[in-house]
Amino acid sequence: PFQARAYTLHLPVGSAVLAMTDGFYRLADTYGLYTQEDLVRRCCSGGLAGPMAELRAWEAARAADTLAVKNADDASVVMWTPDRVDSDNPPIRPGPASARTTEEPA
Predict the structure, then answer these.
(1) Which of 54, 71, 74, 77 could form a disulfide with 24 if both were Cys (CB 3.0 to 4.6 A apart)?
(2) How many whole angstroms separate alpha carbon 84 and alpha carbon 91?
């Protein structure tokens, strides 16, 4: 049977958990549009839609100039801020939490 891994983290107030696929991480790793630290700051301060749009714009511009087997990769990103509730979204019970997700097919 499959043995799922479980992790427990104790995070200080104000923390955020940012998880992304390698397709989204191309903003820092492959394309060099951000450093790892700047990408995290950008996502935490301005949300996830902006960097996702930048990624797709970069890939579209690059696709026009290059011949590649795959012009874009699937990209997904999620940010969880356990102690913050977005004004547009009610808290998720049993405690206040917010989750933002952005996913686009390649």
Answers:
(1) 77
(2) 9
Provide the whole-model pTM.
Answer: 0.68
Q: Are 44 and 100 in contact (CB under 8 A)?
A: no
Phi and psi for 38 in degrees, rounded to 5? -65, -35
Q: What is the DSSP string of the chain?
A: ------------TT--EEEE-HHHHTTTTTS-SS-HHHHHHHHHHH-SHHHHHHHHHHHHHHHHH---S-S---EEEEEEETT---TTSPPPTTS--EEEEEEE--
